[in-house]
Amino acid sequence: MYNLLKGKKGIIFGALNEQSIAWQTAKACFNEGAELVLTNAPIALRMGEINKLSAECNNAPVIPADVVNMEDLKKLFEESMKHFGGGIDFILHSIGMSLNVRKGKSYTEIDYNFNQKTLDISAMSLHRVLRTAWDMDALNESASVIALTYIAAQRVFPDYNEMADAKALLENVARSFGYYYGKRKKVRVNTVSQSPTKTTAGSGVKGFDGFMAYAEKMSPLGNASADDCAKYCTLLFSDYAKMVTMQNLFHDGGFSFTGVTAEVIEQMKE
Ligand code: NAI
After folding, report:
1. More exposed terminus of the chain, fewer Cβ within 10 Å: N or C?
2. Which of 153, 156, 157 is nearest to 167 (CA)?
3. Protein residues with CB under 6 Å of any ligand 1 atom
């Protein structure tokens, strides 16, 4: 380890279980010297798994917050700043939920009430988090904020359903808020566009295994794991990425710029 985050203090949203990208990122940040606060929706915390992660991160406080509840977010930031004795240096937004996917509704038959909730939880929540921090002046100079996204925001992956729209909105919120927070306090806001990864949220996508196998074949480096993503996030949280902001950064083994690979051509011949 390189002590990349020594002395830095961060909030990690979205560690549900060991497979979660947020779980791996919390561990990687802790290993790089960061102090952490862990948070998730109250219902997700009820399973209690997160206490295991907290124990591995020097008993990091676990503070419940539904990311679409502004009161919860305010309390989260207040308690975090009290715990840290000051401002926050980095935030991981690792949150996704599609109500229409859950209810088995395809893109052409979505329920709009569910859709509003999906967009709120999966995309506007980044605005809510940044807005809360903005109003409380909770982020330190040059703080780094990352939200996780997927390439379905740019290209069509039919079974990704309404989450594709949610990710497009999420990426735009990162750019727009990144402008204001950059101007105000040199805060960086980026999205990391990750390979398909076997997690609870990932596995909710129809035909996920086939999807993963295809991406593996279409990526010169293969699919990036949750652990790889965690390491990339620590780099982006560190001072080594101080001038990177308002970007959508592909962390996908080269998938996004590959037209076709020899393996896929070979398979088409069969
Ligand atoms: P996960 O299921 O482990 O994490 C999703 C998290 O969102 C859970 O911890 C869940 O409790 C939290 N969440 C849902 N509703 C919430 C609410 N109202 N308030 C607070 N938290 C809430 O799955 P994963 O894959 O680690 O997902 C993390 C992020 O990575 C998501 O944004 C996902 O879209 C993104 N991503 C995942 C990929 C994959 O293939 N697994 C690929 C690219 C991006």
Report:
1. C
2. 153
3. 14, 16, 20-22, 40-41, 44, 66-68, 94-97, 121, 148-150, 194, 196-197, 199-202
Query: Token pair for residue 240?
Result: 């080594």
Q: Which atom of ligand 1 is nearest to the CA of 197?
A: 40
Number of residues that make up the chain: 270
Do 99 and 118 form a contact (C-beta atoms < 8 A)?
yes
Question: Which fold is adopted by the domain 9-269?
Answer: Rossmann fold (3.40.50)
Ligand 1 binding pocket mutation candidate from 11, 13, 16, 160 (most atoms within 8 A of CB): 16
Tell me the domain boundaries of the chain: 9-269
Q: Compute the distance between CA of residue 100 and CA of residue 102 in angstroms, rounded to an integer.
A: 5
Cβ(93)–Cβ(173) below 8 Å: no
The CB density around residue 172, as the number of other CB atoms within 10 Å, is: 16
In this predicted model, what pLDDT tens digit does every residue of 128-169 receive, in sequence order?
A: 999 999 999 999 999 999 999 999 999 999 889 999 999 999
Q: What are phi and psi of 35, to 5 degrees?
A: -100, 140
Q: What is the pTM of this model?
A: 0.98
Report the 10 Å Cβ neighbour count for 221.
12
Contacts of 148 (CB under 8 A, 6+ apart): 21, 92, 93, 94, 96, 191, 192, 194, 229
Phi-psi label, residue 124: left if phi above 0, alpha if psi -120 to 50, beta otherwise: alpha
CA atoms within 13 A on the CB side of 223: 18
Q: Which residue has the tokens 């980026």?
A: 190
**Could you report the per-residue pLDDT of 79-137, keeping only the tens digit for each?**
999 999 999 999 999 999 999 999 999 999 999 999 999 999 999 999 999 999 999 99
